[in-house]
Amino acid sequence: MLQKYLNAMNKFFRIGLASLLFIGCSQKEGQLFEKLSSDESNITFNNQLLESKNISILDYLYYYNGGGVALGDINNDGLVDIYFTSNQGKNKLYLNKGANKFEDITAKAGVEGQSDWNSGTIMADVNGDGYLDIYVCAVVGINGFEGQNELFINNKDNTFTESAAEYGLDLDNYSSSAAFLDYDLDGDLDMYLLNHAVHSELSFGNADIRNRRNYECGDKLFRNDNGKYVDVSEKAGIFGGANGYGLGLAVSDFNLDGYPDIYVCNDFHEDDYYYLNNGDGTFSESLKSHFGHTSRFSMGVDVADVNHDGFPDIMTLDMLPEDEKVLKSSLGDDNTQMLKMRTEKLGYHYQYTRNMLQLNQDGNHFTETALLSGVAATDWSWSTLFADYDQDGEQDIFVSNGIPKRPNDLDYVKYYSNDQIKSKISSTKLLDKEALKRMPKGNVTNYVFQGSTDLQFKNRSADWIENDSIISNGSGYADIDNDGDLDVVTNNTNNVASVYINKTDGKSNYLKLKLQFVGQNTFGIGTKVISYYKGKKQFKELQTTRGFQSSSEPMIHFGYGKITSIDSLVVIWPDKTFQTLKNIKTNQTLAIKANTSRKAYDYKKLHPAVLPIFKKTETGLGIDFVHQENDFIDFLVQKLIPYQRSDRGAATAIGDLNGDGKDDIFFGASKGKKAAVYLQNPKGFAKKSFDEIEKDSIFEDASAVIGDFNNDKINDLYVASGGGENASNLQDRLYTNKNSQFVKSALPKLVQNASVVKTFDYDKDGDLDLFVANNSVNNRFGTMPDCYLLNNNKGIFTIVEGQTFSKIGMVTDAVFSDFNKDGKVDLILVGEWMKPSFFANKNGKFTNVTETVFPEKSNGLWQSVIPFDIDQDGDEDYLVGNWGMNSKFKASKEFPMKMYYDDFDANGSFETIVAVEKKGQYYTTMGLDELAEQFSGMLKKKFNSYKSFAGKTLEEVFDPKMLEKGTLFEVHNLKSGYLKNENGKFTFVPFSNKMQVTPITCFVKSNFDSDAKEEVFAAGNYFGVSPYHSKFDGFSGALIKNEKTIFLGNQIGIDLTQKAVRHLDIIKFNGKKYILVTINNKKVELYEMPSAKN
User: By three-state DSSP, how is residue 931 classified?
Assistant: First the structure.
């Protein structure tokens, strides 16, 4: 019996062991990257920070930034060699001997370096002899660091000669990195030097500091004049101030004009720099006009075309943690007032603490999508590298990560904020050990994301790479083992460098290009290559400075999945000439030489034709209204609300106000500002004052409508009040038009926070009735407002059906439409924290039939609605604008976003608690400081440190019994899309992701082009959120022709990015159609529609 048992157990263990081995193998096989052991590779380089040097992050801000890596074939034997920089030790050069074996040749090559603190490194053929040289950046002149930037010129025999002084590149600055580029297209390589500031009195203050040159901190541009590098920074328009905290550097021809441009990532308060090359030796810094916002603590950066439109996109890194424990115990974004001061008083741009993915819209502007794309939070990130690692034709992303100590830990910041402690740390070493002990570790695994279509990246960190706690800084990619796929090398702090060998191998196909150009730029830096296969375009540009303090192999790599042959490659050389290769087999390395018979390239070919739908009217035909938002911040009054309510103006109404049969315009105003009326005349529009309207400037005009409300054949004006700052200023107003003047008429008491007013004759008695929708109750976000149906009886309005429209939700828009085709006009309402709601008109009485016609769970943060037969099947569908997916809000039917509302602490003021799901648990969107401000008695006793609060679920922070007493609101869907009509029942169909980048706030229907069909134009963007969210500014507008055809603004001649659009209206003037765009806190814009049929 015992033997039987032992045999059985033996068999069990054998099976168990075999299955364990199988699982181990399958996990390993599933990994895309296999880490090469140092025993196998002989790479033992370790960027060790030495305690014996008696320096720490308390002395030097960038103590933990780590070293760089440069990858390239230094002896032209076809194998990529590796150079590492060491912060405090000797740099190392490893010669690739093949079969993943390397030899340390540093000493005999003469490239150890002499500086006390090394940072970035670049390989480039500086002297144009066909061999790669090595440039090393150093930090000199702070903390007693001595040395200089070094240039090791290749002697072509595996040795180098340090020659920086000879070339004029022996700089003694606070250098981070450099890029070699031919900015003036004269055929040789110039250099941009990226330097970094340190905190000092000189580096803080107004953004203008960047205009005062500082030798150590300011960036520099050097022109190569026959082998001598001349500093042309000032003349070329390059900033060089004491606030230039340069950490990341990317070179690319962003606007595709043939000249390389430059993007610089600056840490802390200084803006990133976007230098557009003017083609005459100068650059124009143009960040604010092209980017709505950027990373705040910008670190590494890379550039690639991620969406196949042929324009280079940008990813910048920051420090937003994914993990709740780290997130809630780390410094985040500024509060609203601080951001307001930085942008409006000090002159900086909008910056937020997270990674940014900036999509290039035809070189005109960038739309930022990191939250939508799933790449916003990778913790303390240094280097990002775009490449097609799995060779499926889509760009993937590698991110290197980690920091030995987190100086932004909130408990540490609180400790350091004590003036005595700060003074001791600044002036002595007495508290250094204690201070460092209080900083928690920041070891985080590297991240890798798999690219896919529709702007989505999937986090594959768990299964594509080994998850470890090694801190990786600089990184580069190269085909180390010559098998066609791209491997990654990282320089690690206090650890042996990592070599990630890509195991894609023969699973998918590739093409590798090595370029040979004429003159001094032997490797063809700046060359663009476009691959075409069955209409699909892949765009690549050869620049080696990538990621962080590093350079990658000077070659171009494409992935093709199962494709065995491609249609063509167009190679555009740096001198604006090109050559074409046709019918190329994949799975090979091509050496492409610049053809002697190459022809000039017309860069206009790379720019898509713009459809002539919109043409901006610069004069505005005299319509010069500027909406000014009044100085009120909702978050100061209601601290925990998810977004503002008082900034939804300006109201706009179009109609004939003087009886001449022509369109006139009413613009509402913010509280304390004057509304405006523009009357049409033969030359355009002229502003006319009306005393009765102007004296009502104590009201905020939320919505307005023009109509003949007393049947005297001349139009009147109804204005709904909103804003919600003061309950006494919320009464709606009716202005009756008498003898060319407006007289205020009596209305019932209507004092809620209005969002929209619409007019229609619902009871078919021949006069215009009104529906007034309200979004919230004054200073009580979460209390359900009433909406009002106002029946018109000979110009006298009374509220009817009060019960039907009482507390139906936070309504934002309404539309009258016969959705059930019974010949009577029905009503559809959309709003926030509610679902689109359908009210059927039965003989002048309205019934809520939503659960019958639209039963699905679809609460959203809906903003707008319009009827439109998008699927062209003959019935009316409804386009609905929602919040979009490019936000920290997160919602689904399974895990809805939740908001609890009540006077939880019984102090007479009501609070909202918003929570979203992460890994199956709910967490508050707000941190301890924000919550404790409102719930101080409750939370300060419970959590005596940020660490004790961080990572706690909603139910661990607040007593579930307390939450149950409140009202619970939910959101299941944040996507914009349409309600598809199927025989009177509706289902929601989302738009593609290019339509989910911001809230869609308004629609307008017209025939915009030369066909006979109506289309819908959509616009959006919204800025009324706390810095935690970052403002929604990247939607240029979209023309929706049908469910398959949607054109973005840049394709049709309109750019509404960075404009919070509130209304779109069609106006007619002199037989032409125009679209009027009303923008919150900006001047209105008018566009002619040259193709439109009237």
Answer: helix
Q: Hey, how many other C-beta atoms are within 10 angstroms of the C-beta on 852? A: 13
The CB density around residue 1093, as the number of other CB atoms within 10 Å, is 13
Q: Which of 377, 68, 37 is nearest to 247 (CA)?
A: 68
Cβ–Cβ under 8 Å, residues 349 and 343 = yes
Q: Are 373 and 456 within 8 A, CB to CB? A: yes
pLDDT at 29: 56
For the segment 613-639, what is each residue's pLDDT rounded down to a tens digit? 999 999 999 999 999 999 899 999 999
Contact indicator for 117, 147 with CB cutoff of 8 Å: yes
Query: Which tokens is 807 given?
Result: 């507390």
User: For residue 814, is the peptide bond before it cis, meaning its omega torsion is within 30 degrees of 0?
Assistant: no
One-letter amino acid identity for 304?
A
3-state secondary structure of 1055: coil
Q: Residue 165 is encoded by which pair of tokens?
A: 């002084």
Element (H, E) at 946: helix 946-949
Residues contacting 66, CB < 8 A, separation 6+: 47, 87, 382, 471, 472, 473, 474, 491, 492, 493, 549
Assessment of whether the complete model's pTM goes beyond 0.70:
yes
Phi, psi of 247 (to 5 degrees): -120, -30
Residues in the chain predicted with pLDDT less than 50, given as ranges, are: 1-28
Structure tokens, 81: 């060699």
User: Rounded CA gap, 1012 and 867, in Å?
Assistant: 18
CA–CA separation, 1079 and 1081 (whole Å):
6
Q: Which run of H or E residues covers position 29? A: helix 2-30
User: 977 near 836, Cβ under 8 Å?
Assistant: no
CA-CA distance, 742 to 719, in Å (whole number)? 12
The strand pairing partners of 501, in sequence order, are: 34
DSSP 740: T
Tell me, rounded to whole angstroms, the distance of Cα 813 from its chain centroid. 27
Nearest to 475 by CA among 609, 301, 338: 301
Residues 932-940: contacts with CB within 8 Å, 24+ apart? 933/639, 934/639, 934/640, 934/905, 935/904, 935/905, 935/911, 937/905, 938/904, 938/905
Q: How many CA atoms lie within 13 A of 54 on its CB side?
A: 5
pLDDT value at residue 1005: 98
Predicted pLDDT at 868: 98
Q: At which residue do the structure tokens 């039965």 appear?
A: 842
In contact, 539 and 311? CB cutoff 8 Å: yes
Q: How far apart are CA 96 and CA 102, in angstroms?
A: 5
1074 CB burial (10 A radius; 0-12, 13-18, 19+): buried
pLDDT in tens, 942-992: 999 999 999 999 999 999 999 999 999 999 999 999 999 999 999 999 999
Residue recorded with tokens 């509220």: 799
Task: Report d(CA 100, CA 98) in Å as an integer.
Answer: 5
Q: Position 226: which residue type? A: N
Q: Which of 818, 817, 811, 819 is nearest to 836 (CA)?
A: 811
